[in-house]
Amino acid sequence: MSKPPSGTPAPVDEIHWLSLIAAVAAISAVGIAIGLGLPLLSIIMEKRGIPSTLIGFNSAMAGLASMAAAPFTTKFAHRHGVAPTMLLAILFAATSALGFYYITNFWLWFPLRVVFHGAITVLFILSEFWINATAPPNRRGFVLGIYGTVLSLGFASGPLLFSILGSEGILPFAVGAGVILLAAIPIFLARNESPVLDEKPERHFMRYVFLVPTATAAVFIFGAVESGGLSLFPIFGTRAGFTESQAALLLTVMGIGNFIFQIPLGMLSDHVKDRRTLLSAMTLIGFIGALCLPMLVESWILMALVLLFWGGCVSGLYTVGLSHLGSRLQGADLAAANAAFVFSYAVGTVAGPQVIGAAIDVTGNSGFAWAIAAFFGLYVALSVVRIVLNPKRP
């Protein structure tokens, strides 16, 4: 039997629970930090009289910081190790989280955002790589389903914490920093199980974006639809005649779908021959669901039912796309591809709200649905072309 190349972990048959807990802790910190930090900082800037345009510009630094940090994460982890790099990122993220309380100069919040979201991106990339590299091939989808479920729970827990803690004083910042620091404990305990990057990636970073386009395009669509949908659905819903509370409940229903479908879809991906087919099916459902939204505005219950399954399909793009990535690559290539995966997600989070918002302005309220359908339609076209051109590639 040939020996795996340097930096490529030997195939595993069982779930490494210590590694899973470490990666889950890191992604929990990511989800909670973003879910708590984004509304907290926006409300504080609003109270300080910062114009909405500047608040939006400052918030956009999150996506830009992620895109900037992604290409360098793998190189740094190769030089210093995966676990040490994650621990350093936790220190930077927690320190900068507290920095938002102590530094009141608005313009200094721009570099502070870069540090905070850059560090969070490092955790995002390396936790994905860790879990993908150590997951058993025959249970990769299930493991990544757990990972994605916890990420969704973290995103949901952040706003809940904000509603409890409020925006006054140091407490919300201290809690955010504390949650991030707690993630260091399981990472430190599992440091000897972290994957080793003995080799540098063989390709330029941007080539990894296109190396497994079915996966990176899936997470781009996920980022665009999730961020654009969460940001602008309340506008679509209220203009369609729903009350603010009804629109908020519809978003909650979509979040529930996002949460409950991660593990089942991950397990399903373990039993399909070609995960690209499953990704295509989910985007087709997303495409049809988006087109149906303007026709469902007369019925809150039907809208909620569609959004429940629609939210599950959107979240499945992340889980199954990440699983597809892990099945195709190993070692340093997998680490670099995970960085490209997060980079594509960040691009989606920047592009989604812009495209969907512009579509509403140009075509009216239904532009919300048309723009989201266009995102899904592009992916359906890409995946069909890929399957036709490479029918035998897994």
Automatic annotation (TrEMBL):
Its main location: membrane. Keywords: Cell membrane, Membrane, Transmembrane, Transmembrane helix, Transport. SUPFAM superfamilies: MFS general substrate transporter (SSF103473). It comes from Sinorhizobium chiapasense. Pfam families: MFS_1. Residues 19-394 form the Major facilitator superfamily (MFS) profile domain. This is MFS transporter. It is a multi-pass membrane protein. The keyword Ribosomal protein does not apply. The keyword Hydrolase does not apply. The chain crosses the membrane at residues 20-44, 82-103, 109-130, 142-164, 170-189, 210-235, 247-265, 277-296, 302-322, 334-356, 368-389. The lineage of its organism: Bacteria, Pseudomonadati, Pseudomonadota, Alphaproteobacteria, Hyphomicrobiales. It is found in: Cell membrane.
